[in-house]
Design a protein that fits this description.
The protein is mainly alpha-helical and 216 residues long. The two termini are 28 Å apart. It has one domain. The protein is built from seven helices and eight strands; from the N terminus they run αβαααββαββαβαββ. The strands form four sheets. A two-stranded antiparallel sheet has the order 1-6.
């Protein structure tokens, strides 16, 4: 697959993820707090795939220059703070310098006034967080925003698991077809890196460390 094919397939996949979120949202509509202005989940530190990073890079490059530079300034500040939080002062090509750590919190560089500056290009976890999420590594548990579903609460799973498993299998297949899970030396990135560097040049089959800055 070439870059255009990968990102087109990714768009189709995220459309299905969005549709499933909307469907489940309606099932639990009386308890869902997810809406513009709620940004509790936007301080979690997490990694994204190279496909997601490339999609964000493309969206940032298409922004007006002032907005693009504002985002990159925020991303540079985020990267500096992330290195302090993780206890590593390495440079940007060091995976350990920017790899998120479980439990640490730092507002996403795309967050502005409790709203996402890259909403249409946001990563998959941002698209589905809030509803009960099935984690195949922990098949007896569901992950969900604590504002919507308090910890320890039992949630009915009828109609929840099968669509999520199908979407997860589709996502894994797409990453495998794109080669980003097998050929890349480091198959993940962060939102901050996706804002700062051109990850379209990473797809397919090149290491993230080779991504080029658009403002170097």
């Amino acid at each position: 697959m070439n870059v255009a094919e990968i990102l087109t397939a990714y768009e189709h996949h995220t459309a299905r993820v969005d549709a499933e979120f909307r469907r489940v949202y309606q099932v639990f509509a009386d308890r869902m707090q997810c809406r513009r202005g709620c940004s509790m989940c936007c301080s979690q530190m997490f990694s994204i795939s190279l496909i997601e990073a490339a999609y964000i890079s493309r969206a940032v490059e298409a922004m007006p220059e002032a907005e693009r530079e504002r985002l990159r300034t925020a991303a540079r500040a985020y990267a500096t703070q992330a290195r302090k939080l993780t206890g590593n002062d390495g440079h940007r090509d060091s995976e350990e310098a920017i790899t998120p750590r479980p439990g640490l919190r730092l507002p996403c560089p795309a967050l502005r006034n409790d709203a996402c500056s890259i909403y249409d290009a946001r990563p998959i976890i941002c698209r589905k967080w809030g509803i009960p999420i099935f984690n195949p590594k922990k098949p007896t548990e569901l992950q969900a925003c604590e504002l919507n579903f308090p910890a320890g609460e039992e949630v009915g799973v009828d109609g929840l698991l099968e669509p999520q498993v199908a979407l997860l299998e589709e996502w894994v297949e797409l990453k495998n077809r794109a080669g980003v899970t097998v050929s890349a030396a480091r198959p993940t990135a962060t939102v901050a890196e996706a804002i700062l560097y051109n990850f379209e040049e990473v797809l397919p089959g090149r290491a993230a460390g080779n991504a080029k800055s658009k403002n170097a």
